[in-house]
Amino acid sequence: MSDLTVSCVQPALQWHQPEANRAELTRLIDEIPIPTDLIVLPEMFSTGFSMDAPAYAETLDGPSVAWMRHIAAQRQAVVTGSLMLQEQDNFYNRLLWVRPDGTMSHYDKRHLFSLAQEQHVFVAGNAPLIEEWKGWRIRPLICYDLRFPVWSRNTPEQPYDLLLYVANWPAVRRTAWSTLLRARAIENLAYTIGVNCVGIDNHGQTYNGDSALLDMKGEYLVEVGNQETCITRTLRRSELEAFRSRFPALHDADPFTILPTPAAL
């Protein structure tokens, strides 16, 4: 199995300015110095964390999805991040997994943030997504999902090597962000990535960034502060397999079954 090079893009998002946000993300991506396999963007990368889906949600044939396809083809890398999408009369906080050939998979955020009334705007997802890319099994999730370890659990039925969270995680809860990222890496014996944004939104909420990449022991490989940046690192497959061989804790985990969300019953 090959190593995997990952680029994590931490922008200062402009509120409800999709064109400006795409331009800034393009600038940051253009600074990636080496070929990369995976480019990770924050949650709602085109608008900031907004509940104004009727005004700003796009469709799969909209400009932000077209931009993701363009970047994926240009860089020959998978591009992933979430945005507000509309299908018929429903809105979703949807993570797209866009491949260089233009094909896509998606994951709809399961745990909607009730403090912001997200559950009254968006339809919750009910199905996990595990993608295989360059020989790696990757589990992408969205922001608030980080607080719910059962949904993130690395299981024999759906194993993965890399866990990633795209987020708009506010600075007031940054201790939870760093603590839970470390916990998810340790308990799942997986490389773990959290990609956030920086700046202040129109509600006065401050975002401190703190995007990070951790190894399967919960050790930080890199952590950035509150500046706009794009970090690129290579994950070593041999180190992951060697550690799991020495410490096979996943084999001792409790079996369980996740029930559907009430809306899906």
Structural summary, described in words:
It is a single chain. A six-stranded mixed sheet has the order 5-4-3-2-1-14. It is built from six helices and 14 strands. By secondary structure, the chain is an alpha/beta fold. The chain has a single domain (4-264), classed as Nitrilase/N-carbamoyl-D-aminoacid amidohydrolase, CATH 3.60.110. The chain has helices spanning 18-30, 53-56, 63-75, 149-152, 174-188, 237-246, and strands at residues 4-10, 38-40, 78-87, 90-98, 104-108, 131-133, 136-142, 162-166, 191-195, 198-200, 206-208, 212-214, 220-223, 229-235.
Descriptive labels:
6 helices; Nitrilase/N-carbamoyl-D-aminoacid amidohydrolase; globular; 265 residues; 6-stranded mixed beta sheet
